[in-house]
Design brief:
By secondary structure, this protein is α+β, with helices and mostly antiparallel strands. It is globular and about 75 Å long. Helix 5 (104-117) packs across helix 6. It has helices at 61-65, 73-79, 84-87, 95-100, 104-117, 154-166, 345-348, 404-412, and strands at residues 54-57, 59-60, 123-128, 133-138, 168-169, 175-180, 230-236, 242-246, 263-264, 269-275, 287-291, 301-305, 311-318, 327-328, 330-331, 340-341, 351-358, 371-372, 378-379, 393-397, 413-415, 420-422, 425-429, 443-445, 458-461, 467-468, 472-476. Helix content is 12%, strand content 23%.
């Protein structure tokens, strides 16, 4: 097949930015199986210096492996040769890259690339060639901040590649992950949250925020309103046991006792408790309890039954949506519920999935080519190849998986079960508990030295024994979080959690 390669010279005709509409790329993000309850393990060290790298996993495998940016040699040459801001500038950016953005999958890929590379607060404006409006890709993880204005280093490209692969899933259904790794020049980059906030974006709503987290457009009051709430923290408890917590009130089944749980500001406050990690609306099945006040007072407190997942999260809001206030939630301790609150990132995301490493930015290592021609036609989407599209991308699996190969194939291949159009080579166990040397084990370390105890695989080999120094390790909340519906149960079964 012959592929036309239009000129890579710059850009769209000049026009006034003031006359262009503004927009933002929406990050959608996979469907989970029934949760598998595992024994708890000690959490890794935490850092309060920055928010941990919790990112949404929702780049579809199809968009990752077949798009006109990363599976296009000409686009890749341009992409790694300059900064993201100048390359995609709405007026002066690369004409060729702008043409390739007529492929929606290329737009999705770039949204995730910018999210991996740039820091929160940094962004890249670009011209949507389909709507002729200026839109914005937002930074998040900050793995390669220098790429904002200049060409990336090899180390940067490797970290961003690993991040892109970690954020891949088959369905594009948003699930949050904890990603861990090392950067010797920035030791705190992968620090974990000491206290973890609830998840705000609902995969059942296409990745949109839970409505209750949005601001109220008019004055509202009372606990049944679904706007103006904020997430507090995440807790853990023994399923089926009664849990009590409050922010200045007594639990409603203990009004005769003296104990007041927590406190609030002078503003009258409310609480809502939701099952799992995701916030909820008033009529949601996840809504376990709510309180405008308890035991004849305005101090909120609740009693609820711990859900089967063993996790809950708390939301807070002022009674009157026009006011502001704060809460300090306290839970009842020393009961059969064994309740703990304000869980760390390590305690919430404690299931080690595996490591991702390599590069997607090697034009010579592509198994397919996709591009948009001068007439705006996207060519190359129907190609099917056995194995990986990116021949220098690799994935190894944690040894706890019952069938790591089956899991990885479902996770990484656009055609599951066939091993076709995969995003990476599936190499095997990151660490084999019996034989810790290559080739049985693909990585030299299962807990990098920079942040001891966070359980990140480091120094990982490809099948040719090439050593990669920038892997990213993914941790999940539940083992089936990223599986396709209908996948065999054994694809997301764990043997036992490892001990450290």
């Amino acid at each position: 097949m012959n592929f036309q390669r239009p000129s890579s010279s710059r850009s769209f005709a000049k026009r006034s930015l003031a006359s262009l509409g503004l927009g933002a790329t929406l990050l959608l993000a996979p469907l989970g199986c029934q949760p598998l309850l595992l024994p708890e393990e000690g959490g890794p060290p935490t850092s309060t210096s920055r928010q941990g790298l919790r990112i949404a996993n929702s780049l579809t495998t199809q968009d990752l492996v077949l798009n006109a940016i990363s599976t296009n040699p000409e686009s890749l040459h341009l992409l790694v040769g300059d900064g993201l801001v100048p390359l995609f500038h709405p007026l002066t950016g690369s004409e060729y890259l702008g043409q390739q953005l007529k492929d929606m999958a290329a737009q999705h890929f770039m949204a995730y690339l910018v999210g991996c590379a740039l820091e929160e607060g940094s962004s890249v404006d670009w011209m949507d060639p389909l709507t002729e409006t200026v839109r914005t890709w937002e930074g998040k993880a900050g793995l390669c901040p220098d790429w904002e204005s200049g060409a990336p280093s090899e180390e940067c490209k490797h970290r961003v590649s690993a991040c892109l692969l970690a954020r891949n899933n088959a369905l594009g259904r948003r699930v949050e992950l904890s990603v861990r790794g090392e950067d010797p020049l920035r030791p705190a980059l992968f620090g974990l949250e000491s206290e973890t906030r609830p998840v705000e974006h609902d995969p059942d709503l296409g990745g949109l925020r839970v409505p209750s987290y949005e601001a109220c457009v008019a004055e509202e009051s009372g606990g049944s309103r679904d706007c103006g709430w904020t997430g507090d923290f995440i807790g853990r408890c023994q399923p089926g046991q009664p849990v009590r917590l409050g922010a200045g009130g007594k639990a409603p089944d203990q009004c005769g006792l003296e104990a007041v749980l927590g406190w609030a500001s002078d503003t009258r406050m409310m609480l809502r408790v939701c099952a799992g990690l995701l916030g909820c609306d008033s009529f949601s099945e996840r809504n376990l309890a709510w309180s405008e006040g308890s035991c004849g007072t305005t101090g909120p407190a609740v009693t609820f039954t711990c859900p089967t997942s063993g996790h809950f999260n708390v939301m807070a809001a002022p009674y009157d949506s026009t006011q502001t206030g704060t809460v300090t939630v306290k839970v009842e301790t020393g009961t059969p519920a064994a309740t703990s609150y304000k869980l760390s990132e390590g305690a919430v995301f404690r299931l080690r999935e595996g490591a991702y490493y390599g590069t997607v930015f090697d034009p010579k290592a592509l198994a397919v080519t996709v591009f948009v021609d001068s007439d705006g036609h996207v060519l190359g989407k129907s190609q099917v190849v056995t194995g990986p599209v990116y021949r220098r991308m690799y994935s190894c699996q944690a040894p706890e998986w019952y069938d790591g190969l089956a899991y990885a194939t479902n996770r990484l291949c656009a055609v599951p079960g066939s091993g076709s159009n995969c995003a990476a080579h599936v190499t095997g166990k990151c660490i084999d508990p019996v034989n810790r040397s290559f080739p049985a084990s693909k990585c030299l370390e299962e807990d990098g030295l920079l942040v001891s105890g966070d359980g990140d695989f480091e120094q990982c080999y490809d099948p040719q024994k090439g050593l990669w120094q920038e892997p990213i390790t993914v941790y999940l909340h539940q083992p089936c979080d990223l599986m396709r519906p209908g996948a065999p149960n054994e694809t997301c079964l764990w043997r036992t959690p490892r001990s450290r």
